[in-house]
Protein backbone atom coordinates (compact mmCIF):
# COMPACT_ATOMS: atom_id res chain seq x y z
CA UNK A 1 0.00 0.00 0.00
CA UNK A 2 1.48 3.33 -1.07
CA UNK A 3 1.90 6.07 1.51
CA UNK A 4 -0.80 8.70 1.44
CA UNK A 5 0.57 11.98 0.11
CA UNK A 6 0.87 15.06 2.29
CA UNK A 7 -1.58 16.92 0.04
CA UNK A 8 -4.32 14.34 0.60
CA UNK A 9 -3.76 14.33 4.37
CA UNK A 10 -3.70 18.14 4.48
CA UNK A 11 -6.93 18.32 2.46
CA UNK A 12 -8.67 15.85 4.75
CA UNK A 13 -7.46 17.64 7.87
CA UNK A 14 -8.15 21.19 6.65
CA UNK A 15 -11.42 20.66 4.80
CA UNK A 16 -13.01 17.96 6.91
CA UNK A 17 -11.27 18.48 10.25
CA UNK A 18 -9.90 14.94 10.16
CA UNK A 19 -7.77 14.50 13.25
CA UNK A 20 -6.70 11.09 11.99
CA UNK A 21 -5.24 12.67 8.83
CA UNK A 22 -3.43 15.31 10.88
CA UNK A 23 -2.17 12.62 13.25
CA UNK A 24 -0.62 10.86 10.26
CA UNK A 25 1.17 14.10 9.35
CA UNK A 26 2.36 14.48 12.94
CA UNK A 27 3.76 10.95 12.95
CA UNK A 28 5.44 11.56 9.59
CA UNK A 29 7.21 14.75 10.69
CA UNK A 30 7.50 14.38 14.45
CA UNK A 31 10.99 12.88 14.51
CA UNK A 32 12.71 15.30 12.10
CA UNK A 33 10.97 18.27 13.72
CA UNK A 34 12.01 17.22 17.22
CA UNK A 35 15.59 16.70 16.00
CA UNK A 36 15.59 20.18 14.46
CA UNK A 37 14.35 21.74 17.69
CA UNK A 38 16.74 19.62 19.75
CA UNK A 39 19.62 21.10 17.78
CA UNK A 40 18.27 24.63 18.19
CA UNK A 41 17.86 24.19 21.95
CA UNK A 42 21.34 22.78 22.41
CA UNK A 43 20.15 19.33 23.39
CA UNK A 44 17.39 20.29 25.83
CA UNK A 45 14.96 17.40 25.22
CA UNK A 46 12.17 18.68 27.44
CA UNK A 47 12.22 22.12 25.85
CA UNK A 48 12.40 20.71 22.33
CA UNK A 49 9.43 18.40 23.08
CA UNK A 50 7.42 21.36 24.41
CA UNK A 51 8.30 23.46 21.36
CA UNK A 52 7.41 20.57 19.02
CA UNK A 53 4.04 20.24 20.70
CA UNK A 54 3.45 24.00 20.36
CA UNK A 55 4.45 23.75 16.69
CA UNK A 56 1.95 20.99 15.95
CA UNK A 57 -0.81 22.84 17.80
CA UNK A 58 -0.14 25.99 15.77
CA UNK A 59 0.02 23.95 12.57
CA UNK A 60 -3.37 22.37 13.35
CA UNK A 61 -4.90 25.76 14.10
CA UNK A 62 -3.40 27.35 10.96
CA UNK A 63 -3.77 24.41 8.59
CA UNK A 64 -6.48 26.15 6.56
CA UNK A 65 -3.97 28.91 5.76
CA UNK A 66 -1.52 26.46 4.16
CA UNK A 67 -1.34 27.57 0.52
CA UNK A 68 0.70 24.66 -0.89
CA UNK A 69 3.26 27.18 -2.25
CA UNK A 70 5.97 25.17 -0.51
CA UNK A 71 6.18 21.66 0.82
CA UNK A 72 4.28 20.96 4.03
CA UNK A 73 7.59 20.11 5.72
CA UNK A 74 8.96 23.57 4.87
CA UNK A 75 5.81 25.25 6.17
CA UNK A 76 5.90 23.17 9.36
CA UNK A 77 9.59 23.89 10.00
CA UNK A 78 8.93 27.62 9.49
CA UNK A 79 6.32 27.43 12.24
CA UNK A 80 8.82 25.56 14.47
CA UNK A 81 11.49 28.17 13.77
CA UNK A 82 9.06 30.94 14.75
CA UNK A 83 7.92 29.06 17.87
CA UNK A 84 11.55 28.66 18.95
CA UNK A 85 12.38 32.34 18.50
CA UNK A 86 9.13 33.41 20.16
CA UNK A 87 10.22 31.32 23.15
CA UNK A 88 13.67 32.96 23.15
CA UNK A 89 12.14 36.44 22.92
CA UNK A 90 9.67 35.68 25.70
CA UNK A 91 12.51 34.57 27.96
CA UNK A 92 14.40 37.75 27.08
CA UNK A 93 17.56 35.65 26.88
CA UNK A 94 18.84 37.64 23.93
CA UNK A 95 18.11 41.15 22.74
CA UNK A 96 18.43 40.06 19.14
CA UNK A 97 18.87 36.79 17.31
CA UNK A 98 22.58 37.53 16.85
CA UNK A 99 22.89 39.26 20.25
CA UNK A 100 24.33 38.42 23.63
CA UNK A 101 25.20 34.95 24.88
CA UNK A 102 22.02 32.93 25.10
CA UNK A 103 20.92 30.03 27.24
CA UNK A 104 21.42 27.83 24.18
CA UNK A 105 25.08 28.81 23.88
CA UNK A 106 25.61 28.08 27.58
CA UNK A 107 23.91 24.70 27.18
CA UNK A 108 26.19 23.77 24.28
CA UNK A 109 29.20 24.73 26.38
CA UNK A 110 28.01 22.66 29.37
CA UNK A 111 27.15 19.59 27.25
CA UNK A 112 30.47 19.64 25.43
CA UNK A 113 32.87 18.63 28.18
CA UNK A 114 33.66 14.94 27.69
CA UNK A 115 35.87 14.91 24.54
CA UNK A 116 33.74 12.61 22.37
CA UNK A 117 33.01 13.34 18.73
CA UNK A 118 29.46 14.40 19.65
CA UNK A 119 30.71 16.81 22.29
CA UNK A 120 33.29 18.20 19.84
CA UNK A 121 30.50 18.74 17.31
CA UNK A 122 28.50 20.50 20.02
CA UNK A 123 31.51 22.70 20.79
CA UNK A 124 31.88 23.48 17.09
CA UNK A 125 28.18 24.31 16.86
CA UNK A 126 28.47 26.76 19.75
CA UNK A 127 30.96 28.77 17.71
CA UNK A 128 28.29 29.47 15.12
CA UNK A 129 25.85 32.33 15.10
CA UNK A 130 22.21 31.40 15.60
CA UNK A 131 21.52 31.73 11.87
CA UNK A 132 24.59 29.67 10.91
CA UNK A 133 23.61 26.96 13.42
CA UNK A 134 20.04 26.87 12.09
CA UNK A 135 21.17 26.69 8.45
CA UNK A 136 23.68 23.91 9.22
CA UNK A 137 21.01 21.97 11.15
CA UNK A 138 18.38 22.30 8.43
CA UNK A 139 20.84 21.38 5.68
CA UNK A 140 22.84 18.55 7.20
CA UNK A 141 20.55 17.14 9.86
CA UNK A 142 17.15 17.69 8.25
CA UNK A 143 18.39 17.31 4.66
CA UNK A 144 16.70 20.44 3.33
CA UNK A 145 17.66 22.18 0.12
CA UNK A 146 18.81 25.83 0.02
CA UNK A 147 15.42 26.94 -1.30
CA UNK A 148 13.60 25.20 1.57
CA UNK A 149 15.96 26.65 4.18
CA UNK A 150 15.42 30.12 2.73
CA UNK A 151 11.66 29.63 3.07
CA UNK A 152 11.92 28.36 6.65
CA UNK A 153 14.20 31.21 7.72
CA UNK A 154 12.57 33.86 5.53
CA UNK A 155 15.85 35.00 4.01
CA UNK A 156 17.34 35.10 0.51
CA UNK A 157 18.98 31.95 -0.82
CA UNK A 158 22.31 33.77 -1.15
CA UNK A 159 22.21 34.61 2.56
CA UNK A 160 21.52 30.97 3.40
CA UNK A 161 24.50 29.92 1.27
CA UNK A 162 26.68 32.47 3.09
CA UNK A 163 25.57 31.20 6.51
CA UNK A 164 26.24 27.61 5.43
CA UNK A 165 29.66 28.48 4.05
CA UNK A 166 30.73 30.45 7.14
CA UNK A 167 29.31 27.80 9.45
CA UNK A 168 31.11 24.96 7.68
CA UNK A 169 34.35 26.93 7.67
CA UNK A 170 34.14 27.66 11.41
CA UNK A 171 33.29 24.03 12.24
CA UNK A 172 36.02 22.65 9.97
CA UNK A 173 38.65 24.94 11.51
CA UNK A 174 37.61 23.97 15.03
CA UNK A 175 37.53 20.24 14.30
CA UNK A 176 40.92 20.30 12.53
CA UNK A 177 42.43 22.07 15.55
CA UNK A 178 41.05 19.26 17.71
CA UNK A 179 42.59 16.40 15.75
CA UNK A 180 39.92 15.57 13.17
CA UNK A 181 40.85 15.40 9.50
Give an overview in words.
The protein is an all-alpha fold and 181 residues long. Helix 1 crosses helix 2 (19-40), helix 6 (117-126) crosses helix 9 (157-177) and helix 8 (146-153) packs across helix 9. It has nine helices and no strands.
Write the layout of secondary structure elements.
Layout: H1 6-16, H2 19-40, H3 45-62, H4 72-91, H5 103-111, H6 117-126, H7 130-141, H8 146-153, H9 157-177
Helix pairs in contact: 1-2, 2-3, 2-4, 2-7, 3-4, 4-8, 5-6, 6-9, 7-9, 8-9
List keywords for this structure.
9 helices; 181 residues; 72% helix; mainly alpha; 0% strand
Radius of gyration: 17 Å
| Helical coverage, percent range | over 70%
Number of helices: 9
Unreliable segments of 5+ consecutive residues: 93-101, 107-114
Mean pLDDT: 84
Task: Indicate the structural class.
Answer: mainly alpha
Helix and strand string, N-terminal first? HHHHHHHHH
Biggest sheet, open or closed, and with what strands and sense? none
Distance between the termini: 45 Å
Instruction: Describe the global form.
Output: elongated
Give the strand tally: 0
Content of β-strand: under 5%
Task: Report a brief summary of the structure.
The protein is mostly helical.
Amino acid sequence: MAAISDQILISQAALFGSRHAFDMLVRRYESPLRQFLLNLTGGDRMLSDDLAQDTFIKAWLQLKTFKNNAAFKTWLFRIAYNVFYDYIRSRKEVHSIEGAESEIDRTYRQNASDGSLQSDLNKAMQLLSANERTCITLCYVNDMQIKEIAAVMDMPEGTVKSHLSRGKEKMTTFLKKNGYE
